Amino acid sequence: MEDLSYILSRVILYINHLYIISSLFMRIHVRFFASHKERIGCSNLLLELNEGSKIINLIDKINQTNPGFSKKPESLVAAVNQEYQDLNFVLRDNDEVAFIPPVSGGMINDQNFKYSCRNHV
User: Fold this and answer.
1) Whole domain around residue 106: which residue ranges?
2) Mean pLDDT over all residues of the chain?
3) Cα–Cα distance for residue pair 66/4, rounded to 1 Å
4) What's residue 75's pLDDT?
5) Which contiguous run of DSSP H or E holds residue 35?
6) 67: domain CATH number?
7) Number of domains observed in the structure of the chain
8) pLDDT in tens, 52-102
9) Has residue 110 been placed in a domain?
10) Which residues contact residue 34 at a Cβ distance below 8 angstroms, ignoring those fewer than 6 apart?
11) Is position 81 within any domain?
12) Among 4, 20, 56, 92, which residue's Cβ finds the most Cβ atoms within 10 Å?
């Protein structure tokens, strides 16, 4: 019985440890469209970032595994939860970040514009 008690206490300790570690990270759902989707090779990623990370940190993480993603991060257009944001925007757990390429060589600067996930596959 003492062995079972010891094992249970170790399991509880391990679960608590995992909970603490997981609370230091946040999961970010990333969507890519058009040329970004072609460069990455998929339309969706789920990435973990440190708590308090910004969009620019997300871009750095993507560039680590996909060096061709963006050589000029400042030229990227990003929307968080369907709202355009600048690269210094602080992300939260379970945010959705969409990287939208410029249309016809231009950039979308309208902060009120919202994209619809249903219209892009």
Assistant:
1) 25-119
2) 80
3) 47
4) 85
5) helix 34-40
6) 3.10.20.30
7) 1
8) 999 999 999 999 988 878 888 888 899 999 999 999 999 999 999 999 887
9) yes
10) 100, 101
11) yes
12) 56
